[in-house]
Amino acid sequence: MGGGINVHAWSEQGPVADHHLHTVEHHAADVYVHARAVLTTDVWFTQSSDGGASWRQAHLAGPFNLRAAPLGSHGLGEYQGLAAFGGRGFAAIFTLAAPLAKDGPTDIFFAKIGPGAG
Q: What is the mean pLDDT of residues 88-112?
């Protein structure tokens, strides 16, 4: 994402809730920690109400260790979605790895995002 945020973002999901609000759910990892054994990663909800000229962020989950996530099937971003609640915010589902995942290498999580979050 832009705006001076120094991260690598991927797994972007972005419905347009109405004609003026654009939204994105994404994973982001600090670009300076790629050489470390633990790659600290978070899930963010980002929205713009001015056509993308400016963006607001809300933290959904994390940090977790991206290096604990399996490659390929059942990896991060494979089970991810964002749905509008008709003026009452959004619902997000996303995959996280250890230490937040408890039932396997990755687990599915849910977050309700209130109106005006970010």
A: 88
What's the number of domains the chain is made of?
1
Q: Is the pTM for the entire model greater than 0.70?
A: yes
Peptide bond into 63 cis (omega under 30): yes
Strands (E), the chain: 7-13, 22-30, 40-48, 56-65, 81-84, 90-97, 106-113
Spatial distance between the Cα atoms of 67 and 70, rounded to a whole number of angstroms: 8
Mention every residue, 6+ apart, whose C-beta is less than 8 A from residue 23: 14, 15, 16, 17, 45, 46, 47, 48, 82, 84, 90
Domain containing 84 equals 7-113
